[in-house]
């Protein structure tokens, strides 16, 4: 009976597309597969870490709270490569994230 509420036969295509795009990004970016993880920022609401393969550096920033958060990071982060929410903003090294959102920047 625990599986009765499952929507069997009705796939969540938005969720499937989201994970497919993450898989494609991981396959395209060597640093996400092979680079070590270095924590840049961590507090009770946000986490930021660097992935680098020696050729390219990526930063992953996550808002783990149900409130908007901002994180200021050192470095030259120029553009968003991926975001879970189009309202996420990268501006002059400062990152603004909606609740429960994340991004990858280069």
Describe this structure in words.
With 106 residues, this protein is an alpha+beta fold. It is 20% helix and 37% strand. The protein has a 5-stranded antiparallel beta sheet with strand order 1-2-3-8-5. A 3-stranded antiparallel beta sheet has the order 4-7-6, with no helix packed on it. It starts with 12 loop residues before the first helix and ends with a strand.
Strand content: 35-45%
Helix segment tally: 2
Order of helices and strands, N to C?
HHEEEEEEEE
Global outline? globular
What spatial order of strands do you see in the largest sheet? 1-2-3-8-5
Rg, please? 16 Å
Intertermini distance: 47 Å
The strand count comes to 8
Low-confidence stretches: none
Structural class: alpha+beta
Main sheet summary? 5 strands, antiparallel
Helix content, binned percent: 10-25%
Question: What integer is the average pLDDT?
Answer: 92
Q: What's the quick description here?
A:
By secondary structure, the protein is α+β, with helices and mostly antiparallel strands.
